[in-house]
């Protein structure tokens, strides 16, 4: 829930929407979604292809109209004040919107002209952005010869020419290599540190985990869950500790000590439900010690956003095979740390 100001008034939302609906013929794309995004934060909208992510961005950026519902961006209604919305936002789509025949500087100056900044202000702004995005050394190189990462950086720089309050990034790192993706993440963090609000759509779950203050999961036109990354992960069962044993005798004794554990007879391993915290691990190892049993190894498994995504979208369930994170730790070290 958003925090309250003195006097009980909620702070103004950078993006606000209620009961947004959109259909194309018999196809319902958005089926009544609500949003409230505080300023200066990163909000990530996750969902499979066709869930309605891009349609949401298009409505909020005034590119298309909703069939019903209300939305405001930076305090401007998307229907009654579309020019106000457009003046306050920047939009970067899935593919870089560059003119390949122009240089990096010329692309920025073209955007400045479209925004009617004036020649002197436009050149100043272009120079600042070339430096900020570390492309000043290729300012006079045609965009056609840029790498994918450089193209995305220039595309985002063009989005910032108008100094927007809210930026919509629709799958901004699609097709980028891991290094370029992380560079883009650092750029997003710097924007938010400067007070910009970022509305991010992505299919890279690690990206949402790394960047977003809050995450909403969109499936079949409806938001099926919303919260911080940790809050969403906590909704999905499956945290456990996997214990491995050197021989069948130790394994059978451990199985008797943990009658509720899931067995893996081929691997001589037990799956014991638990959150993997230090207190839980200490209790688990104390229980083994009391029974005179020694595990040869263990790993901690916790649900991640992949599990959230699989469980909540496309008719998935929590029985979906988990793509879990594994943390392998030395048993003696954990026992010593816990104590």
Structure description:
With 339 residues, the protein is of the alpha/beta class. It has 2 domains: 15-98 and 146-231, P-loop containing nucleotide triphosphate hydrolases (Rossmann fold, 3-Layer(aba) Sandwich); 236-338. It is 35% helix and 25% strand. The protein has helices at 53-60, 82-88, 104-114, 119-132, 148-159, 178-193, 205-211, 229-234, 248-257, 278-290, 305-312, 331-338, and strands spanning 15-24, 27-37, 42-46, 68-73, 76-77, 89-92, 166-170, 197-202, 214-219, 222-227, 240-244, 262-264, 269-273, 297-302, 325-328. The strands form 3 sheets. A 6-stranded mixed β-sheet has the order 6-7-8-3-9-10, with helices on both faces. Helix 6 links the parallel strand 7 and strand 8. Helix 3 (104-114) packs across helix 4 (119-132), helix 3 runs parallel beside helix 5 (148-159) and helix 5 packs parallel to helix 6. The longest helix has 16 residues, at 178-193. The chain is elongated and about 80 Å long. Residues 1-9 and 316-339 have low confidence and may be disordered.
CATH class of the largest domain: Alpha Beta
The strands making up the biggest β-sheet line up spatially as 6-7-8-3-9-10
Overall domain count:
2
- Return residue spans where pLDDT drops below 50 for at least 5 consecutive residues: 1-9, 316-339
Q: Provide the gyration radius in Å.
A: 25 Å
Enter the CATH topology name of the largest domain.
Rossmann fold
- DSSP strand content: 15-25%
The N- to C-terminal Cα distance equals 37 Å
Number of helices: 12
The tally of beta strands, per DSSP, is 15
CATH architecture of the largest domain: 3-Layer(aba) Sandwich
- Helix % is 25-40%
Secondary-structure content class: alpha/beta
């Amino acid at each position: 829930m958003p925090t309250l100001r003195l006097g009980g008034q909620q702070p103004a939302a950078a993006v606000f929407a209620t009961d947004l609906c959109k259909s194309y013929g018999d196809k319902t794309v958005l089926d009544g979604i609500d949003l409230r995004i505080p300023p200066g934060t990163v909000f990530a909208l996750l969902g499979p292809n066709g869930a309605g992510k891009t349609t949401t961005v298009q409505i909020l950026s005034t590119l298309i109209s909703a069939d019903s519902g209300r939305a405001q961006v930076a305090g401007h209604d998307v229907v009654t004040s579309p020019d106000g919305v457009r003046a306050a936002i920047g939009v970067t789509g899935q593919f870089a919107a560059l003119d390949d025949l122009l240089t990096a500087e010329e692309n920025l100056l073209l955007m400045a002209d479209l925004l009617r900044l004036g020649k002197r202000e436009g050149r100043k702004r272009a120079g600042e952005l070339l430096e900020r995005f570390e492309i000043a050394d290729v300012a006079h190189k045609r965009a056609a010869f840029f790498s994918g990462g450089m193209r995305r950086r220039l595309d985002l720089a063009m989005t910032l020419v108008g100094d927007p309050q809210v930026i919509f990034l629709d799958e901004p790192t699609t097709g980028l290599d891991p290094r370029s993706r992380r560079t883009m993440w650092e750029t997003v963090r710097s924007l938010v540190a400067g007070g910009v609000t970022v509305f991010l759509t992505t299919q890279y779950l690690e990206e949402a985990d790394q960047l977003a203050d809050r995450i909403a999961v969109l499936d079949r036109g409806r938001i099926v869950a919303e919260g911080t990354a940790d809050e969403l992960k906590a909704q999905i069962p499956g945290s456990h500790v996997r214990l491995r044993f050197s021989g069948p005798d130790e394994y059978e004794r451990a199985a008797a000590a943990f009658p509720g554990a899931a067995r893996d007879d081929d691997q001589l391993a037990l799956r014991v439900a638990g959150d993997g915290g230090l207190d839980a691990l200490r209790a688990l190892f104390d229980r083994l010690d009391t029974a005179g049993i020694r595990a040869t190894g263990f790993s901690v498994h916790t649900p991640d956003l992949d599990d959230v995504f699989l469980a909540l979208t496309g008719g998935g369930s929590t029985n979906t095979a988990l793509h879990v994170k594994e943390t392998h730790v030395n048993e003696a070290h954990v026992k010593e740390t816990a104590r």
